[in-house]
Amino acid sequence: MAGMSREALDHAESKDFALGTGPKRPRDAATLILLDREGASVRVLLGRRSRHHAFMPGRFVFPGGRTDPADARIAVASDLHPDEKQKLRGTGSRASDARARAIALSAIRETYEEAGLLIGNPGSFQTRNPGWAGFAEHNVVPSLDRLRYLARAITPPGRVRRFDTRFLVAWKDDIAVELPDGGPTEELEELAWFNLGEAKELEVPLITKTVLADLETRLANDPDLRPGAAIPFYRMRHRRFQRELL
Asked: Which helix (H) or strand (E) holds 154?
């Protein structure tokens, strides 16, 4: 896909979310945007999805994936900041602290599985959940207090795959262990750090480019990413793409 025009990439992405049959409820998902500050600039970690994947092959993405409700039961060294937890809870009948924790923890788990990076604090950790075995093996207790909520996006209706994705942010300093051979799933190739300008020019999904622009704006106004900021929320309503703040 190297050298493809933006129009060609847009067309390819439309195939990734091809129309399906019948309504599909979006599934909770989470993505972790890892940042590394170097002087006055900030770099972001992205990896290329294998070209053998049926879904978004060859695209550069942040580590992430579906939320497992069982993640809410994982012990942590520190909980979400109250302001971040309140925003991740959402509203309506499904809103709960357990859902907020599951979303945040799934971003950390997926970052381990896809990138081999364990976010947390050194310490004794035990679990029977196989998705978290690497944390027990390397004595890392997941930590949520420094995670910041950046954006939310829901895949438009009528697509085969629909996700209600929360984009979370952490810093490179929050990585307790970096596995030399990457994560066990080997989903991401060519993991690398890019400055924000470079990242927006990669073969990234359109929503990733949009969120990178939001990140750039937020960092310009709030370099320390203080908790409780307004969250851009992207979704399709009445056949129109909308951005609102949560």
From this structure: strand 148-154
**DSSP per residue over 20-73, as a string?**
-SS--PPEEEEEEEEEEEETTEEEEEEEEEPTT-SSSTT-EE-SEEEPPGGGGG
Tokens of 11: 């067309």
CA torsion angle 49 52 54 60 (round to 10): 20
Please give the model's pTM, rounded to 2 decimal places. Answer: 0.88
How far is Cα 42 from Cα 35, in angstroms, rounded to an integer? 7
Q: Do 63 and 198 touch, CB atoms closer than 8 A?
A: no
State the maximum Cα–Cα separation within the chain, in Å, rounded to a whole number. Answer: 50
62: left (phi over 0), alpha (psi -120 to 50) or beta: beta
As given in the structure block, the two tokens for residue 81 are: 């900041």
Closest CA to 125 of 53, 201, 90, 176: 176
Going by C-alpha positions, the residue among 48, 180, 183 that lies closest to residue 111 is 183
pLDDT tens profile 195-242:
999 999 999 999 999 999 999 999 999 999 999 999 999 998 888 889
Please return the burial class of 206, using the count of CB atoms within 10 Å of its CB with bins 0-12, 13-18 and 19+.
Answer: middle
